[in-house]
Amino acid sequence: ASLEMKTVRLDTLVTEAARAHQLAAASKGLRLKIEAQDTSLEADPEKLRSIVDNLISNAVKFTPPGGTITVKAAARGGASAEIEVVDSGPGIPPEERESIFNLFFRGRTKAESSPIKGSGLGLAIARELVEAHGGQIAVVGGGSGGHFRVTLPRRSARTLADAA
Fold it and tell me: How many other C-beta atoms can be found within 10 angstroms of the C-beta atom of residue 4?
């Protein structure tokens, strides 16, 4: 994926992305909380938005009514920025934490318990876009519910090379 790098206000982008899902969340009785600190980074704003959209829509899909989705954005030291989407849904079984990013993968729990038919593309696309930015996406284990963390370099490798 070719990227159009710009300086992006991560807090603004995450807040706007979350707001776009507010209706869908509200219609399911979900609370959507945004915890975004002032952070900027170099990224392709459209592709970054697509990553955040995919993670939030995934959380809205799999969080049962009455649940909460928290979308966080923050700087992690000077070098990287993090986006986290945490939901109070069923979570991701440890044995699915790697395969969940594969194309067309659909977890067992989803198929049995819910009428939702995902394409299985969202997370694969998100991972591809994150990796194109030189970042990483992972499922964070240990808590209940789903918890995705995206870590992105705040300055692209290309910019660092230009500056050197």
Answer: 9
